[in-house]
Amino acid sequence: PVFFRTPRAVAELAYQEGLELKKAGDLGKAITQLKLAADQGHVSAQNSLAWALATSKVKELRDGPTSVAYAEKAVAVDRTYNVLDTYAAALACKGEFSRAGEIQGEAIRLLNAAKNLSPNQRQALIGGFEARLKLYRAGQAYVE
What we know:
Elements: H1 7-23, H2 27-38, H3 43-55, H4 64-77, H5 81-93, H6 97-113, H7 119-137
Helix pairs in contact: 1-2, 2-3, 3-4, 3-5, 4-5, 5-6, 6-7
């Protein structure tokens, strides 16, 4: 049989492979796959790529300007607490701590207002969001 791969299907496959590679600890290859998907307009891949480039514990993989560029693409389509959290991390990686704090504050407000979360889910997330806000206010980037 002949399989037709639409650009959307290729992007989704690359995104899923990127997530699996990241889980397996191969961040370099994960970034390559996430970039492939992100460049096809896959918003979740843009967000995941921006997060990886902003927060990688491997200093050589961190790239603030590129991270900000992908985070801005994701935010333009999906201005939710998790995407804003990524955008703030990207800004902090680039050294824009004041703006990172503003964006993180917005992410926290949206997280607190989210109707799709149970109190337990919200509580599980809020600590990390607030800890990152403190880092940005102290002029520090977040690294996983």
